[in-house]
Amino acid sequence: MIPIDKISAERALQAFVGSDAYIHSEATSFTFVRNFKVNVTHAFLAGDGPYRAALRFDGHGWLRTEALTHYEQDGNGRLLLAGFDDRGRMNVAFHLGKEPFPE
Amino acid sequence: MNTPDKTKQRKLLAVFAHPDDETFICGGTLAKYGSAGVEMTLVSATRGEMGRRMGNPPYLNRETMPAAREQELRQACEILGISRLQFFDIRDKTVEFHDAAELEARIGAIIDELQPDVVLTFHETLGGHPDHCAIGKATKAAYMRSGLEGGLYYISFGSTMAKPERSGYTRQDIVKIDVSKHKRTKLDAFRAHRCQTEIDEWVWLPDHEAMSYFGDYEYFIVGDGRAPRRSPVDLF
């Protein structure tokens, strides 16, 4: 994971617009959802760091995640966004992939 | 009552929930029995892949975490002298939602095959995390049906069981293991769990300073009320 570069992270996020995506989303100490599948219609990245990401999906859905600090495009066409505190502990994660994430 | 047979290979089975449970909670005891030639097997229900700590600074993400933590656990096992490691491949934080009968049967099959003298697991209410309590409950149930007797113990945190009355136990329910000669091995195992311990500065102090953070004793709760405690200072 590397600190978010807004332009390239936003470009990677936008690449999911118009297609189906599998999502892993978590607020680490509270909740996670793994492998819900949505059709992404809009994607946004906002802020100057930490960042906020949002998706509109399926014509009626929202997913919004804040406190994002790091990202990575891994070898499997997946975009991994995460928010860490100043001691490396994860607060939030927001992953998008074209295929289901390992169960 | 079981009388230890000196000619027989002594065996210990530990059934825990996450990589690092074995080291952080009872690493001194495992190091001690490992160095004494006890054959040790560890079951980890999960790979700890939903943890918050990802190195400091972070070098892991949610998707790389399971393999990294498995590798760290394999290294810790080697350090502690645990020769067999098995994962149940249950997702971290979901053990309590797993089919309890199936979990109990899997643990029962391992107990049947291994015939361990000692089984370590979590206490089903004092375990401190839902995954811990769930794996402890299933292990207890499997042990009670196994035909073995008197060798089930619950691990406990730090020195809380130096005063067992506070948790509704008496001193007769507790085994106190002297681990004072095994702190270096325990420290090495802590350091093997790098992504979890990098945040704790004390672990990375010079060895003798870091080792001073460990207590001289680890405490175990006798888990099988059908048999008397074997020893106040030994699990076997």
Sum up the structure in keywords:
heterodimer; A: 103 residues; mainly beta; Protein Yojf, Chain: A; eight-stranded antiparallel sheet; 1 helix; 8 strands; B: 236 residues; alpha/beta; Rossmann fold; seven-stranded mixed sheet; 7 helices; globular
Quick rundown:
Chain A is mostly beta strands and 103 residues long.
Structure report:
The complex is a heterodimer of chains A (103) and B (236). With 103 residues, chain A is mainly beta. In chain A, 9% of the residues lie in helices and 57% in strands. Chain A starts with a strand and ends in a 6-residue tail after the last strand. The model of chain A has no long low-confidence stretch (mean pLDDT 96). Chain B is an alpha/beta fold and 236 residues long. Chain B has one domain: LmbE-like (Rossmann fold, 3-Layer(aba) Sandwich), CATH 3.40.50.10320. Chain B is 34% helix and 16% strand. Chain B has seven helices and seven strands; from the N terminus they run E-H-E-H-E-H-E-H-E-E-H-H-H-E. In chain B, strands 3-2-1-4-5-7-6 form a seven-stranded mixed beta sheet, sandwiched between helices. In chain B, strand 1, helix 1 and strand 2 form a beta-alpha-beta unit. Chains A and B meet through strand 7 and strand 8 of A and loops of B.
The CATH architecture term of chain B is 3-Layer(aba) Sandwich
Question: Briefly, what CATH class of chain B?
Answer: Alpha Beta
Largest chain interface and its two residue counts?
Answer: A-B, 23 and 18 residues
Q: In the residues of chain A, how many domains can be counted?
A: 1
Protein name (chain B): PIG-L family deacetylase
InterPro entries (chain B): GlcNAc_PI_deacetylase-related, LmbE-like_dom_sf
GO molecular function (chain B): hydrolase activity, acting on carbon-nitrogen (but not peptide) bonds, in linear amides
Pfam family, one (chain B): PIG-L
